[in-house]
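tool=predict chain=A
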Amino acid sequence: MNKILYILGIIFILTSCASEARLFKVDNSKVGVKYKRVKGTIFNDEYDFSNFFVIDVDSTKRWTPKKVDIENAESILRRQLSNINKDKVNQFGGYPIIHRNLNSYFRQYVGILNEKGQKIIHINFYWNKYSLIDKIKGYHNSRINFKSNYAIVFDGGSYYWQINVNLEEQKLSDLQINGVA
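tool=predict ok
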């Protein structure tokens, strides 16, 4: 009986730890994130503004997201994405449907204050799950990792997309899915 309780206790500890975001320092302006099966980079408020441009929000007013902010943003994203993505723009043919493939994207997180002073997390998504056939065809993106700078990609359909998460209103906005060339 004690053995069963011991095993159940270990399983409980392992599963509860796995559900929290783990943050680690990458460099002076970036923090790595591992959360469940998601990986990404947080750009802190000291990150050089000239290295990124965020559409639809004044990205000059920034803040640094913490672990709880990332967990909250990911929760909002999972709950609301399928609704905001109902038209599935640029998600046809071989392109992934974004709300069905959330774990297949590397994220870049930027904390921004909107005109009302509300905390927004802008998330930049990069496809990170290329199959062996994709790699043989030359489709892979090894450039995006924890040390990568904020990157803008043109075209590429739903392999590259962005969204804003308003933490105070608990709402998604400004879904931008790249075009298809």
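The longest helix spans residues 67-84. The helical segments are 2-18, 67-84, 132-136.
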